[in-house]
Amino acid sequence: MKQLKKIAAAVLIAAMLGLLLPQLGVNAEALKRGSRGDLVRQLQTRLRSWGYYSGTVDGVYGAKTESAVRITHIPTGIVAQCQDEKSQLKNREKCMRVLRSRVLEMEQEKQRAATAQDRKNQVGTGDRSERIRTYNYPQGRVTDHRIGLTLHRLDAVLNGDLDEILDALITAQQSKLLQQVK
């Protein structure tokens, strides 16, 4: 009987998940091809849900039913609990909404942190050592410090003849990408 209740609860949770499935790492296409048992197994490995007796403010005249719900998202360790309603079903739905929003917020924070790190890496610190190119007018020299290219044709570069610099930059970028692949 307990197994049947657990399966029913997992199926109910699955119906409420909607947008949470991708954050849980559950492949929706695989679920369409699979059975309900597959869904239950996948969700049970990622969520842990249980009911408990909700307490009162002063601890007197406690509830006689397990109406409170606590759900843990196992991969992230995020816990959501709810004991606002008298019905465990309503508490479970509310708890799933809270859990979904917390997991989504965490994923968005990861995205923001990754974007901020990428921007920081692209901008750099602005130190003199991070210069890209030097134009030396007395010597008629252009030096690109990213790839170590020095040309003694400053006038041609200033007039728009950038082919030699661009070819060297493209070659350096391609070799960098190849090294990353290896």
What do these coordinates show?
- Helix 1 packs across helix 4.
- This protein has 182 residues and is an alpha+beta fold.
- Strand 4 and strand 5 (141-144) form a beta hairpin.
- The chain is built from seven helices and six strands.
- It has helices at residues 2-17, 20-24, 28-33, 36-46, 88-123, 154-158, 163-181, and strands at 47-52, 68-73, 78-82, 133-136, 141-144, 149-151.
- The chain is rod-shaped.
- 54% of the residues lie in helices and 15% in strands.
- The chain has a three-stranded antiparallel beta sheet with strand order 1-2-3. A three-stranded antiparallel beta sheet has the order 4-5-6, with no helix packed on it.
List the helices and strands and how they pair.
Layout: H1 2-17, H2 20-24, H3 28-33, H4 36-46, E1 47-52, E2 68-73, E3 78-82, H5 88-123, E4 133-136, E5 141-144, E6 149-151, H6 154-158, H7 163-181
Antiparallel strand pairs: 1-2, 2-3, 4-5, 5-6
Helix pairs in contact: 1-4
